[in-house]
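Good morning C.,

I know you're traveling, so I'll keep this short. The sequence:
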Amino acid sequence: MAVTEAVENYLETIYILSLSKPEVHAIDICNHLGYSRPTVSIVLRQLKEKKYVTVNEDNHIFLTQSGLEIAQHIYERHVILTKMLVSLGVPEVLAQEDACKIEHDLSDETFDAIKRHYHEEHENRADT
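The tokens, ready to paste straight into the viewer:
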């Protein structure tokens, strides 16, 4: 089953928030993405139905294993693409925005080539 860009964005947001907060709530997602509470509630219900997240009795949101895998996959793309664009001279804020647009559409093969190139360039700079 293909995962939509919207689902990827929500899962990545939950993952990013969980890196800095011990508990993620729907309002945190609203604030991070700039979406309304009803919109986030609808998507969270869909994410629960697809078994990408669970919500406990205190309304803390957790990624399931499959949700975590998708989130980490997209987050890695975002980080590498942002770093690559910055290394090309793109301002950080613009690089982050563009990485967010690109991360969902690249094939795995193309991303792997970009990642290898970035790491090789980074290693070469460290050696000099």
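Safe travels,
E.
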